[in-house]
Structure formats: structure tokens, C-alpha cells
């Protein structure tokens, strides 16, 4: 862990830790995630309206975020294998403890895989019961152009999230609108086959 003090951004409550994970820690975490993904493979969710997402997803931890024709929700099993999600890596629990200052623990980690033209439209994370807990996001691999703006609407701005960067939506930014405009292909060699993996830790219940 290099820096515990986050960098402030133009949005109050959006905290940013550039290269919170140095390269060896990124490699260890990625290895753990890829081993878990063997048991809980990436799949392509659809929106409640039936549109496939450009991002592939899976989850780690007791609960996982899913989207399908029935809506958005957290559930304890992988929608395709029917098996429980693999456990949350210890390194992620440590990051949550060291960076967020939250006294509790996350119970869900969404794993997003961005390849090619994959992106994520502006949205709010609002399927969690406990909005007091932050959302902590860890980036691995290619750099993302992350867009964010206040919960209530208005002007958005962007932040480039590179491999090992961590950011958090806390307090007044917990319900900030955010998304990924694009991922810069070839900007990192970390992820085998290229692309970006984002790990989003939340307390769902
Ligand atoms: C998300 O909001 O689920 C992911 C954001 C990101 O990929 O950085
Ligand atoms: Mn989100």
C-alpha cells in the first residue's frame, strides 16, 4: 500500500488513490481473480429490456449483482452455473479496510471485463440496502475513461483510471452518476488477452 490519503477530485466524496496497488500486488490480485473466474465464468448479462451489455460480468463474495429480464438484484449464485460465487479475495478486504474507513465489510464484488469496444453507460449504484457504506472500485489492465457527475444531474467530468488505481464513491458522492466512456486498448499488458478488469466492492445488505 503506497498512499492511504486519497486524492480529492472535483466531486466531493469521490476519492481517488492512483496506483494504490503496485504492479506485484496487481499481478497477485489478478491471478486470484482469474483462478476464481474458472469456477464462476464471465457471462454477458442482459438489461431488463433484453439488451446484452457490452461488458462481461461475474461476481465474488456472498452476494453478486445480476441483471436479467426480471430486473437488477443481488443473489448468492451464478445465474449460469447455479453455484455460489467464489469467496472475496483477502487483498480486497484489506483494501476496503485500509482505504474506506468503513467499520463494516463488503459482501459483494462485481467483476467487470471490458474488451474491445465495451463501455458502461452513466448510472447510479442503488441496488444496495445500506447506502451509508461506500462503493470501492479497483482497476486492473487497460486505462478507462471514467465519467462521473453529481447524483442530481448536471455537469460530468472524466478521470482516467489506470491499472492499480482505486477510487471510492462515498458520502455525498455515494449516488454519483458514473460510467465508462471507453477503454484505451493496449495501454497495459496486465490482463492476458488484453482489456480491463474492474472490481467493484459494495455492501449490498
Ligand atoms: C461499475 O460502475 O460497475 C463499473 C465502473 C468501472 O468499470 O470503473
Ligand atoms: Mn456502478
Any overview of this molecule?
By secondary structure, this protein is of the alpha+beta class. It has one domain: Jelly Rolls (Sandwich), CATH 2.60.120.590. It contains 2 helices and 13 strands; from the N terminus they run ββαβββαββββββββ. The strands form 3 sheets. The protein has a 7-stranded antiparallel β-sheet, with helices on one face. A 4-stranded antiparallel β-sheet has the order 7-12-9-10, with no helix packed on it. The longest helix is centred in the first third of the chain and has 17 residues, at 23-39. The radius of gyration is 16 Å and the shape is globular. The mean pLDDT is 96. Bound molecules: succinic acid and manganese (II) ion (MN).
Distance between termini? 28 Å
Oligomeric organization of the protein chains: single chain
List low-confidence stretches: none
Kindly report the average pLDDT value.
Answer: 96
Q: What's the architecture in CATH terms?
A: Sandwich
Q: CATH class, anyone?
A: Mainly Beta
Portion of residues in beta strands equals 25-35%
The SSE order reads EEHEEEHEEEEEEEE
What molecules are bound to this protein? succinic acid, manganese (II) ion
Give the number of helices. 2
Radius of gyration: 16 Å
Structural class given helices, strands, pairing? alpha+beta
Total domain count:
1
Looking at CATH, which topology would you report? Jelly Rolls
- Biggest beta-sheet profile: 7 strands, antiparallel
- Strand order of the main beta sheet, please? 1-2-11-8-13-6-3
Quantity of strands, as a count: 13
**Helix content estimate:** 10-25%
Choose one word for the global shape.
globular
